[in-house]
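Priority: medium. Attachment 1 of 2:
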């Protein structure tokens, strides 16, 4: 059967696309951001660089099997000014107009507080045009939680066109992503009942029963970053920097990174794997194959190692505001988002409760906070450590924060792609 195209609107660096490739399908991503397009090209993902709002639907009519959409969320997100919330009536009107075959964007934009708000209505323009040809067969959409009422409007329209549709909030941590990222999801299908994927993980692990294996404990940052699951992470604080992709968007001074030393007193380099892989293992020792989290070239001298590094436990702090989310490394990260304060997502140290060393043995005191690296942030978003992020660090952080976690995307995609998906082990074949 010729299944046709899978069209990915606002494709970003490739969260949906990478997951689809893992499951054996290549989609076509429409994306405007040049750095995201460069990342996609380096990852071998098919891309049309274009403004989704300006691109015609006609080339895809009669050829599209599935439609994916994750419109930009800056106007709606908790991380932004949230002007999109003031534009909600206009966005709902645009969706209703598109569903009736009317393009009223020029009129509605004059009243919008944020010109990006109407981008959340663009998928309906595509859906209406494709529906005339009896397509697509399935639809998957993702956005920040505040957009759930809009997804419900989409679902009501899709049901009137013969789709089964489901909307709700899913937590990425429930699907093996080392981050408690909550997202509004729309699932629709013409050929099967739309239901959310069964969670595989939980805050409190469940025992095996007569009905099968229980859910595993949420994947922690330490597990995902390869710090080990049974013993505490033993990080080192290293000064100096490696080659960046462009200007450093952080305050001046020595760049610091967080690396691990499994053997105290020894630092080891972990080169990125030749084949990018995501893996969930039953032994609980971490699902990702990780490369080095340090930017140094392979032939660079090893960084200095502090013999006192094992005395500290590490947490990730989302920013320096009083209400910042702070998570211990043995927990999943909070929702990662990066804007002009990307430099404020920091690893912070505190003395381990079980240490017996005295303060006199460590005259340097508690280590300074350490900025998260783009590679670490990508891994916590469930990308492989070797994913080829393009651009300078600020541009990389922006791509990561806006991307759909590939592992969550794979759970959503698998039933519609007809893919054989072992939810305990998902790898990209070489």
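Attachment 2 of 2:
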């Amino acid at each position: 059967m010729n299944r046709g195209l899978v069209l990915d609107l606002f494709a970003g660096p490739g969260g949906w696309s990478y997951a689809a490739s893992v499951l054996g399908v290549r989609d076509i991503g429409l994306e405007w951001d040049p750095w995201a397009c460069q990342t996609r090209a380096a990852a071998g993902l098919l891309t049309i660089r274009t403004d989704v709002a300006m691109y015609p639907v006609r080339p895809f009519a009669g050829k599209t099997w599935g439609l994916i959409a994750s419109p930009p969320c800056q106007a709606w997100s908790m991380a932004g000014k949230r002007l999109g919330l003031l534009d909600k009536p206009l966005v709902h009107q645009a969706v209703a107009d598109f569903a009736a075959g009317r393009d009223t964007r020029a009129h509605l934009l004059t009243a919008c507080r944020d010109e990006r708000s109407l981008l959340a209505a663009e998928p309906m323009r595509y859906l209406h045009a494709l529906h005339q040809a009896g397509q697509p067969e399935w639809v998957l959409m993702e956005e920040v939680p505040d957009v759930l009422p809009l997804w419900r409007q989409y679902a009501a329209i899709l049901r009137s066109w013969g789709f089964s549709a489901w909307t709700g909030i899913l937590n990425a941590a429930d699907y093996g992503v080392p981050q408690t990222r909550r997202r509004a999801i729309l699932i629709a299908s013409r050929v099967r009942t739309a239901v959310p994927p069964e969670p595989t993980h939980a805050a409190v692990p469940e025992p095996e029963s007569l009905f099968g294996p229980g859910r595993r404990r949420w994947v922690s940052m330490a597990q995902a970053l390869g710090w080990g699951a049974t013993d505490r992470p033993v990080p080192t604080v290293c000064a100096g920097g490696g080659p960046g992709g462009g200007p450093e968007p952080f305050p001046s001074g020595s760049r610091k990174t967080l690396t691990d030393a499994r053997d105290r007193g020894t630092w080891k380099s972990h080169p990125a794997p030749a084949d990018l892989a995501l893996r969930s293992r039953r032994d609980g020792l971490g699902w990702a194959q990780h490369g080095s989290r340090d930017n140094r070239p392979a032939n660079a001298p090893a960084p200095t190692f502090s013999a006192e590094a094992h005395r500290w436990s590490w947490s990730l702090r989302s920013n320096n505001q009083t209400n910042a989310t702070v998570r211990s490394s043995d927990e999943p990260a909070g929702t990662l988002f990066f804007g002009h304060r990307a430099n404020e997502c920091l690893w912070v140290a505190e003395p381990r409760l079980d240490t017996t060393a005295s303060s006199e043995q460590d005259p340097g005191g508690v280590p300074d906070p350490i900025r998260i690296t783009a590679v670490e942030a990508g891994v916590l978003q469930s990308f492989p450590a070797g994913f080829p992020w393009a651009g300078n660090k600020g541009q990389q952080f922006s791509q990561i924060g806006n991307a759909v976690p590939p592992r969550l995307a794979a759970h959503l995609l698998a039933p519609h792609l007809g893919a054989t998906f072992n939810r305990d082990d998902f790898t990209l074949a070489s």
